[in-house]
Amino acid sequence: xxxxxxxxxxxxxxxxxxxxxxxxxxxxxxxxxxxxxxxxxxxxxxxxxxxxxxxxxxxxxxxxxxxxxxxxxxxxxxxxxxxxxxxxxxxxxxxxxxxxxxxxxxxxxxxxxxxxxxxxxxxxxxxxxxxxxxxxxxxxxxxxxxxxxxxxxxxxxxxxxxxxxxxxxxxxxxxxxxxxxxxxxxxxxxxxxxxxxxxxxxxxxxxxxxxxxxxxxxxxxxxxxxxxxxxxxxxxxxxxxxxxxxxxxxxxxxxxxxxxxxxxxxxxxxxxxxxxxxxxxxxxxxxxxxxxxxxxxxxxxxxxxxxxxxxxxxxxxxxxxxxxxxxxxxxxxxxxxxxxx
Length: 341
Ligand code: F6P
Prior knowledge:
This protein has helices spanning 15-30, 40-46, 81-91, 103-114, 139-160, 175-184, 198-211, 248-261, 281-299, 331-339; strands at residues 2-7, 33-37, 49-52, 96-101, 119-123, 163-168, 188-190, 216-221, 265-269, 305-310, 313-318. It is of the alpha/beta class. It has a seven-stranded mixed beta sheet with strand order 3-2-1-4-5-10-11, sandwiched between helices. The protein is elongated and about 70 Å long. Bound molecules: 6-O-phosphono-beta-D-fructofuranose.
């Protein structure tokens, strides 16, 4: 078989582990070839091909980013995009295409599959909001980075008696905010799942500082929004693909806290730091498992599926259970973040 491979959407640590898993397993177990496409779906549309052999994946396991490059490009929303993609796949004689991506890439994969291409998706996103899988590649590393940042902010917050607002990524779901908030011992966690009331946040901080503390850590997911009818006026700034302009809600929350409490308040926007650097062992292992599972799926003709971690097992989930949906943080986890404030 000739297996095509691409990484699409925002990058994250662990993508190279998945690429390596696909290449090693395809070549070693089945004697298949792997044809990489550079820069996501854009590379497929443009015929930007990079055949992948063993030498291409040497020493990539600890390296962040993606050796194939990536781009935010959705063939079904670009003029002539689908025709260009189908033309390249035919010219390259691709028997099955493995795409590693988040919700946007999986959605594009389901559209290309509808046009008759055997497709397999591997979920990645630091946001961890892909439905059908317990974990997506990149999330574990991002939580580690955000937790480390919160730990560091704790000591300086305490020295200066400050409120530290930390904005983390998470457009539609607050997985990083809630997990890093719990792990880092944040006092307040604001997530998209639960629109917030700034008055309540301020009341809580005032009470805490009066009663027993002189500093606080407030973690805000970039997609958090004030509840309708509450005191804060805020409009989220969005980019072309719905990506959030980093710092917008963090800045608004920090300003409100500073103005309403008079506490010395600082903002840290973690931004793309959360997507960089070496993957944790968990992300390396997850990427490797998904890579192997995707090749097995292609070899056995199981297509229009996404690899997924469910409990301890890697399983295959049909696209129609996944595409176009968001996996939100459950109430139980949100309540833990509140309980430990
Ligand atoms: O989807 C992952 C993500 O990191 C989001 O958390 C964030 O809003 C977005 O990508 C940022 O996108 P870009 O890299 O295009 O600025």
